[in-house]
Design brief:
By secondary structure, the chain is α+β, with helices and mostly antiparallel strands. The chain contains eight helices and six strands. It has helices at 41-65, 68-94, 109-137, 144-164, 172-201, 206-233, 243-251, 286-301, and strands at 2-8, 15-21, 103-106, 256-266, 272-280, 305-312. The strands form two sheets. It has a three-stranded mixed β-sheet, covered by helices on one side. It has a two-stranded antiparallel sheet with strand order 1-2. Helix 8 (286-301) links the parallel strand 5 (272-280) and strand 6. Helix 2 packs antiparallel against helix 3 (109-137). The longest helix is centred in the middle third of the chain and has 30 residues, at 172-201.
Amino acid sequence: MRASKIVLRCTTPRVYLPVMEHHHDHDHGHHHHHVSPNAMGKSFAIGLSVNLAYMAVEIIAGLAVHSVALLADAAHNASDVLGLLAAFVAGRLAMRAATATFTYGMRRASILAALANASLLLLVTGGIAWEAVLRLLNTPHVGGGTVMLVAAGGILVNGGSALLFMRGQNDLNVRGAFLHMAGDAALAAATVVAGLIICLTHWNWVDPITSLIVAGAIIAATWSLLRQSVALSMDAVPAGLDTAKISAALAGVPGVISVHDLHVWPVSTTETALTAHIVRVDTTGDSALLGAAQHALEEKFGIQHATLQLEVAGFDCACAFSAAA
C-alpha cells in the first residue's frame, strides 16, 4: 500500500488529500501487471551476452564465405544488442526518484529508448537492402553449408532469447525485444533454407534475395513499434485507453455532475498520467469523492497517477488545451 497525492486547485484552497493506491488481482475488468526492463535485468544480461557472441560468429563466417545474408543478419543483431542495451538503461533511469528538475523522474527515457530502437532498426535495414541489391548485380560465390550452419545457430540463440522476453509484453521496449528476437529466429530459419538451396543448385543469387526478404520482414515488424513510440513521445493517449470511457467512469462517481478538460498521456512505456476537471454538486465530501474517482481510474483503466481539479456547478474554469467536443 502506498499513498499518492491528488491536488485540488482553482475553485478551492490548495490542499493535498492522501488516497490509498493498491495493486490487486481481480477476476473482472483489466489486469495491470507491469514488468519493467529493470525488473528483467537477468533476462537482458543473458540476451545481450548470447547475441554479442553470435554476432561475432556471424561476422567472421560471413566474411569467410562472402555471405551478405550472414553479414546482414549480423548487422541486424548489432541493432538488437543496442536496442536491448537501450531498453535496459532506460529501465534503470526510469527507477530514479523525481527531482526538482525532473518532477516525473526519468520515466520518459523508456519512450525515447523505444523510439531510438525502432529508428536504428529501420536505418540498419535500409543498409541491408542496399547491400543486397548490389550483390544481386554482382553475385559472388557463397558457401551454402557454412551459411546453413551459422543460421541454424541463430535459430537457437534468437529463439532462446525471445523466450526470455515473453513476459512483460505490456512494456513497449520489452515487447520490441521479444518481437525482434522471435523475428530473428524465423528469419534465421529462412536463411537455413537459402543455404540448402545454394548447396543443391549453386544459385548464389538466392543469398541476396533472402536478404531482401529479411529486410522486408524487419520493416513490417518494426513499423508498428515505430508508430507507437512516436505516438507516445507526442503524448498520445496510450493504446487500449478510451478517453470517452474514462470520462464516463468519472462521471459515474456519486456526487459528480460532469467531467471536462480531460487529458491522458504516457509518463513511460508502462505508466499513464491523467488530469481532469470534475464538477461536483457541493463542497462537502471531497475526500470520499476523490477516493471513489481514484479507485475507478485504477480499477478500470490502470491509471495510478491522477490530478483532479474539483469545481462547484456553475463555475467556469476552462482549460486552454481542452480537446474539441
